[in-house]
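Moderator note: this is an archived Q&A kept for reference. The question asked for a predicted structure of one protein chain; the sequence and the answer are reproduced below.
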Amino acid sequence: MFYLPRRDQEGQGLVEYALILVLVAIVVIAILAILGPQIGNIFSRVTNGLSGT
């Protein structure tokens, strides 16, 4: 017998994927907020090293 999802369950998968995407975005934003200044300093040092100053 074939499994046919009920009408009220069709959007459930999309909602779950959306929640996962939102959680991943929040984690990435938090990591960038914490490590952003350190990463900026690294790029600044590399740029200064390449320009010879």
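Archived answer notes: The radius of gyration is 22 Å.
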